[in-house]
Structure formats: structure tokens, C-alpha cells
Cytochrome c
Amino acid sequence: MTRNSKWLLLVVAVILVIAVSACGGGVKEGTNSGGTNNGTNNGGTNGGNNAGGGTVDAAAAEAIYKQNCIGCHAVDLSGGVGPNLQKVGAKLSADQIKATITNGRGGMPAYKDQLSSADIDTLSNWLASMK
């Protein structure tokens, strides 16, 4: 291995470590990310596929997403470290999404101790509308 390829490998490894460490960040236990499900619909559709029968509060969900999910799922939900979520509602129900956010899955950490139940519902309903 040449000296340049060793440096390149080192740089890639450092970037990977930084990207992976960004996953799971967010709100500390006992705090609220600021998002709430106030029962309004800000332009999102839920297609009848939501966790608690609630409506989609896109503004609150986007705020929760930006604070907790962007590091792995990207600004546009296209993925990166985590999977693409742009059409996750076509594959998973809001209840399945809620279970994944709450308990984690694969490389995704559980958020049950970082987000309130209302925030998880808001985020789940919003993601379920992505079809």
C-alpha cells in the first residue's frame, strides 16, 4: 500500500466515524425537542395510515426530524448512514415506524428515552405520509 492510499484510507475512516457518531444524537433524556402534535394539518397527508389516528403536523415533525434524524437520514430524507425515508410510508405503517423510532432497529438507536411519546407520534405520522 502506498503512502497516499494509507492517508486516503485514514481520511475515509475518520469521516465514517464522524458520520456514525452523528446518529443517535439529539435531545437529552428528560427534555422535549419542542415538537408537539397539536392536531393540525400543515399540508401533509396521512392517507389513513397513522399511529394514533392523529393528523400530520408537518412543521412540528420537521423540527423534530432536524434535531434528531438529519445526521443519518439527510436533510431531504435520502439517507446516507441510515436508510432512505423519502417513501417510507409506502413500505411501513405509522405503527411500524413508531416502533422503530421508539425501540430502534439494526443500526438505529432507540429514541424512547430521548423523545416524548407525543413527539414520536408526530414524527411517525409525518413519516408515514411520505409515499
The chain has one domain: 3-128. The chain has a mean pLDDT of 76. The radius of gyration is 17 Å.
